[in-house]
Design brief:
Keywords: Dioxygenase, Oxidoreductase
Organism: Chryseobacterium arthrosphaerae
Cofactor: L-ascorbate
Helix content: 25-40%
Protein name: 2OG-Fe(II) oxygenase
Strand order of the largest sheet: 1-11-7-15-5-4-2
Shape: globular
Structural class: alpha+beta
Number of helices: 6
Largest sheet: 7 strands, antiparallel
Domain Prolyl 4-hydroxylase alpha subunit: 23-233
């Protein structure tokens, strides 16, 4: 666990903060080692780790499958979630302040989870996703309850163009009174992509306004694509 904490601590968070303010997303290269990715993938079929499995086609979410981890989370996932959160909380607070939203996030993730529990949100939201050939994920937002943290992470566990083709990560920005903008990203195996859960502030001539954003995954043309999603708030169900 020491290595992952050191990696997270050595990141240029000032630069990442600026990228988040500007774009609503940022890529952290090489957060997970190849071995760590393989360990997470190898546990996919061990259902004792998970509280729920979702087959996307049944709910018209896309084509693929994902599983929600149960508490206690695996040590590696818990350390990433706990160690990254304090760097993201100031970004989240500045966004809410700019948009005049009366919510403030604590600097410690344990304190934030206590707030989730007080809102009846007690179920783990960290998930592992698997897409096979033809798999995709429709555009969506991961909220899970009244209390949510506006930033989340996805870690790529498979190598693009080797383990799979297609399957790009897609973000859309819904700009008021304008057409939506699409951003297509292709993180490598072990990379972490930080992005807004549902919106980012944008400065206009009359102050800040909200740019709503959704995310999804384009169709996988070949192979299997695995990813780990880390959401910082808990769920009601």
């Amino acid at each position: 666990m020491t290595d992952i904490i050191k990696k997270i601590g050595s990141i240029d968070w000032h630069n990442i903060t600026e990228e988040m303010h500007q774009n609503g997303y940022a890529v952290l290269p090489g957060i997970l080692s190849d071995n760590e990715c393989e360990i997470l993938k190898s546990g996919y079929d061990d259902n004792s780790r998970y509280r729920k499995t979702v087959v996307m086609a049944r709910h018209r979410f896309g084509l693929g499958e994902y599983k929600y981890f149960d508490y206690p989370l695996p040590d590696l996932i818990r350390e990433i979630r706990t160690s990254v959160y304090p760097y993201l909380a100031p970004i989240a607070n500045s966004w809410f302040k700019a948009l005049h939203i009366n919510t403030s996030f604590p600097s410690d993730h344990t304190d934030f989870l206590q707030q989730c529990n007080a809102h009846g949100q007690q179920k783990a939201t960290v998930l592992i996703l698997k897409y096979g050939e033809g798999g995709f994920n429709t555009l969506h937002q991961d909220l899970y309850g009244d209390l949510y943290f506006p930033i989340q992470i996805v870690l790529m566990l498979s190598e693009p163009d080797q383990d799979f083709t297609g399957g790009e990560f897609v973000l859309t920005q819904q700009i008021p009174r304008a057409q939506s903008k699409a951003v297509v990203l292709k993180p490598k195996k072990g990379d972490a992509l930080i992005f807004t859960t549902n919106f980012k502030p944008e400065k206009g001539t009359k102050g800040y306004y909200r740019v709503n954003m959704k995310h999804g995954v384009s169709e996988v043309r070949k192979g299997n694509r695995y990813a780990l999603g880390i959401i910082f708030h808990d769920a009601t169900n």
